[in-house]
Amino acid sequence: MMKLNKLFIIGVLTSTFFISCKNDDDTTEEVEVRDPAEQAIEDDEALIAYMQTHFYNYEEFENPPANFDYTIKFDTIAGANSGKTPIIDSDLLMTKTVNVEDIDYNVYILKIREGAGDHPTFADSTFQNYKGELLNGTTFDNTTNPVWFDLQGYVGTVYNNNGQASLAKKGGVISGFSQAMTEFGEASGFTVNPDNTVEWKNDYGVGATFFPSGLGYYANGTGSIPSYSPLVFTFKLYGVKQADHDQDGIPSYMEDLDGDENVFNDDTDEDGLPNNSDADDDNDGTPTRDEITINEDGSIEFQDKNNNGVPDHLDPDVFE
Fold first, then answer.
1. 61, 126, 151, 153: least CB-packed within 10 angstroms?
2. How many whole angstroms separate alpha carbon 231 and alpha carbon 77?
3. Residue 294 phi, psi (nearest 5)
4. How much of the chain, in percent, has pLDDT values that exceed 90?
5. pLDDT, mean over the chain
6. What is the reported pTM?
7. How many helices (H) and strands (E) does the chain have?
8. What's the rounded Cα separation, in Å, for the pair 240 and 119?
9. Which sequence ranges are marked TM in the entry (predicted)?
């Protein structure tokens, strides 16, 4: 796995993380602020209408032709395609409800092939191809080669033009995309060719997701994505890497203490660094890694030396 880990590091350093970033050149336009609950309903109706009037190339997946690349393609049900089965009627379509600030959003996930390997958690990293489209069929982003995505991201130091340091979020993808990726698995393995290219076993995850603007950019249109746009993504998930952003021995998903799948509101010592980005979670001077036990099998034991119910790495009163 050493070569794959190296590939991960290089990918993180070079990827633009398109889903999380807004171009500096984007001009700011005044956008009407809409009611989130009403917009969620409107977006859901638009997504359902899209899935009722569109189909994907399911026949190719059912009987793959020679050299089939397992790419999902959508088209309108009309004319010669009038007899095609709409997406909404596919047995492979599932609905996932995500609650954000007391509003329920529906994420529709077309699970064509789940993938034989490990699933990422909401805080892990994925190596994949993807294509992003609007409901009118406009492609706003597409990969030629797979890229790494840090699904949740972390907080780190950034510097402005004057060399002044501050803390800012790095990485991360929009919620609707992340919610879909956790439903898929990576390939069960890969081989490295003599030219150092990677060939993945043909059992990687293949799917698509359709989600509302409330789990995307909402009012903040970016690039060729207008404000309040529901989004469609197709993807192939090749690899997964468990993230430990601060290298403290605790996987980032385990540092989501309140279980809301948001690591950025878990900051035990309130120093501006969430626990997944803080190598000393309780700021007691003893690194988190030195206050936990990592067993040979990789499992973690959280010590509580004063038996007060608070693990030592989160307890500033216990240190060495």
1. 61
2. 19
3. -105, 115
4. 87
5. 91
6. 0.88
7. 4, 15
8. 7
9. none
Alpha carbons 17 and 148: distance in angstroms, whole number: 8
Determine the Cα–Cα distance for residues 132 and 38; give it in Å rounded to an integer.
24
CATH number for the domain running over 2-241: 3.10.50.40
Residue 174 is given by DSSP the state: -
Share of the chain above pLDDT 70, in %: 91
Other CB atoms within a 10 A radius of the CB of residue 250 amount to 22
- Locate CATH 3.10.50.40 in the chain: 2-241
Pick the closest to residue 122 from 96, 103, 90 (CA basis): 96
The amino acid at 149: F
- Average pLDDT estimate for 34-61: 97
Tens-place pLDDT, residues 172-220? 999 999 999 999 999 999 999 999 988 999 999 999 999 999 999 999 9
State how far Cα 89 lies from the chain centre. 26
Amino acid identity, residue 70?
Y
pLDDT for 146 beyond 50: yes
Cα–Cα dist 297/25, whole Å: 48
Phi (first) and psi of residue 46, to 5 degrees: -65, -40
**Exposed, middle or buried by CB within 10 Å (0-12, 13-18, 19+), for 61?**
middle
**Assigned token pair, 177:** 């995309």
- The tokens for 10 are 């290089």
Reference 249, options 287, 284, 283, 285; nearest CA is 287
- CB-based contacts of 114: which residues, under 8 Å, 6+ apart? 183, 184, 185, 205
